[in-house]
UniProtKB/TrEMBL annotation:
It comes from Marasmius crinis-equi. Keywords: Membrane, Transmembrane, Transmembrane helix. It is a multi-pass membrane protein. The keyword Transmembrane applies. The lineage of its organism: Eukaryota, Fungi, Dikarya, Basidiomycota, Agaricomycotina. The chain crosses the membrane at residues 12-33, 53-70, 82-102. Pfam families: Sugar_tr. This is Major facilitator superfamily (MFS) profile domain-containing protein. The keyword Disulfide bond does not apply. InterPro entries: MFS_sugar_transport-like, MFS_Sugar_Transporters, MFS_trans_sf. It is found in: Membrane.
Length: 105
């Protein structure tokens, strides 16, 4: 949709893209955002849980901070193709969850 909007700036295409993006990120936030914290707490023994969660929060916040500064540069450089890269990363995450999470075996 964003590719079509860049070629022909139509308000309907822009509004549809914003609606789809809003729905996508809404479902993504409900499903994926709480999962790392909840899964880590569930599988870690109590003796190392606090330290492991602190490391997890440190790594997550570091990656998010880098993402805040890098994503706009990439979006400006490759435009709408950035969302295809994002979906490819999500496919890799899905495969890793299927492979590594105990409940999916």
């Amino acid at each position: 949709m964003l590719a079509a909007f860049t070629h022909t700036p139509d308000k309907a295409i822009g509004a549809a893209f914003i609606a789809v993006l809003f729905l996508y990120y809404g479902s993504y936030s409900i499903a994926w955002i709480p999962l790392p914290s909840l899964y880590s707490v569930e599988i870690l023994p109590f003796s190392i849980r606090a330290k492991a969660m602190a490391y997890s929060a440190l790594i997550t916040n570091t990656i998010l901070t880098i993402s805040v500064y890098v994503n706009p540069i990439i979006l400006e450089a490759i435009g709408w193709k950035f969302y295809g890269c994002f979906v490819a990363c999500l496919a890799v995450y899905l495969f890793l969850v299927w492979l590594l999470f105990i409940e999916t075996r």
